[in-house]
Amino acid sequence: MVTSIHEPISVLTLYHHATHTVIPKKLQWKERTYHINKLGHHHTVKKGEKLIHIFSVCNETLAFRIAFDTQTLEWMLEEIEDGIG
């Protein structure tokens, strides 16, 4: 089941200088830490003047859609899906 969340989160990322890629490794939401073990789709969207990076990531049991706002440098949890494992 997919649930829309739209709440701020903390994200630990890895930046690879040779490929210029950002890889989310962990996210923290509601005092829980979720380790990310798979990066799915990544794309960008424009919302007015803002550039937003959208990442689809998952762990063993949950899938997350997270967004990074390049103007405010804030991360948001957009959606969560359970039952994928």
Describe, in plain words, how this protein is organized in 3D.
The structure is a single chain. The chain is mostly beta strands and 85 residues long. The chain has one domain. The protein is built from no helices and seven strands. It has strands at residues 2-16, 21-29, 32-35, 38-47, 50-58, 62-69, 74-82. Strands 3-2-1-7-6-5-4 form a seven-stranded antiparallel sheet, with no helix packed on it. Strand 4 and strand 5 (50-58) form a beta hairpin. The protein is globular, with a radius of gyration of 13 Å.
Biggest beta sheet summary: 7 strands, antiparallel
Helix count, per DSSP? 0
What letter string, H or E per element, gives the SSE order?
EEEEEEE
Q: If strands are numbered along the chain, what order do they take across the biggest sheet? A: 3-2-1-7-6-5-4
Strand content: over 45%
Rg on CA atoms, Å: 13 Å
Number of strands: 7
- The backbone outline, from C-alpha atoms, is globular
Which stretches of 5+ consecutive residues score pLDDT under 50?
none
Distance between the termini: 13 Å
Strand-pairing-aware structural class: mainly beta
When the domains are counted, the total is 1
Give the % helix. Answer: under 10%
Mean pLDDT: 95
